[in-house]
Design brief:
Length: about 220
């Protein structure tokens, strides 16, 4: 299916590369990434990178969004973890990066609205862009939680449509784009590769995609 898709059939989306560490962020910048999500320990879904790496990444020439997640596992955070998240958001503001990638849920699988509002408000005061991360893919009712997240006023929502990969969740991603109606950008991620990126964008209407492989940067280059 993907072999029948050409670069002329879709508009090139903004491509965000998820970089596990500063060295990979530098490589992504060199490869031509439009934006970088900086994290650490991608093998467990990513956690907040060390502060020295955040400071260094702020000097790159492309926008850098920092994953703010104090641990792996679920997204139900204790008061102590929430305090760490807020402190890390403040640090990202002083470091001069472009934005933060955040999110929190309740044990019932809903958005932790009180804390998320506090975190988003703090990020805005620090001049940071805000992405809500793939916590949304773990909830029982993704479309209902989508409305909650949209009410926070975030800039974008990173999602695979609730599926293991964005390709598998492409129908839900398309529905999320329709329902968001421009209130936030839907950023499609998880399992996005050079082999499926074109078809994914074509079938969903995604304007931004997210992946850890820099090969996707070449997927939209038309070869005459």
């Amino acid at each position: 299916m993907t072999g029948m898709t050409t670069a002329k059939s879709v508009e090139r989306p903004l491509i965000e590369i998820c970089a596990d560490g500063f060295d990979k962020a530098c490589a992504a910048e060199k490869a031509g990434a439009d934006r970088i999500e900086l994290c650490s320990d991608l093998s467990v879904g990513g956690i907040t990178p060390p502060r020295e790496e955040i400071r260094a990444a702020a000097q790159l020439t492309v926008p850098v969004n920092v994953l703010v997640r104090p641990r792996s596992g679920d997204f139900c955070h204790t008061p102590a973890e929430k305090d760490i998240i807020l402190k890390d958001i403040r640090f990202c503001g002083t470091a001069g990066v472009h934005g933060v990638v955040i999110g929190a849920l309740t044990p019932a699988g809903r958005t932790d609205l009180d804390f998320c509002r506090e975190a988003v408000a703090l990020a805005r005061r620090e001049g940071l862009s805000v992405t809500f991360h793939r916590a949304i893919d773990t909830v029982p009712d993704i479309l209902s939680v989508l409305e909650e997240v949209l009410s926070l006023g975030v800039d974008r929502i990173l999602t695979s449509g609730g599926a293991p990969t964005a390709w598998e969740g492409r129908e839900m991603i398309a529905e999320m784009i329709r329902r968001s109606a421009g209130r936030a950008v839907i950023l499609g991620g998880s399992g996005v590769t050079a082999d499926n990126a074109l078809a994914l964008v074509r079938e969903t209407g995604l304007r931004e995609i997210h992946g850890s492989r820099t090969g996707i940067l070449n997927a939209f280059t038309h070869k005459s």
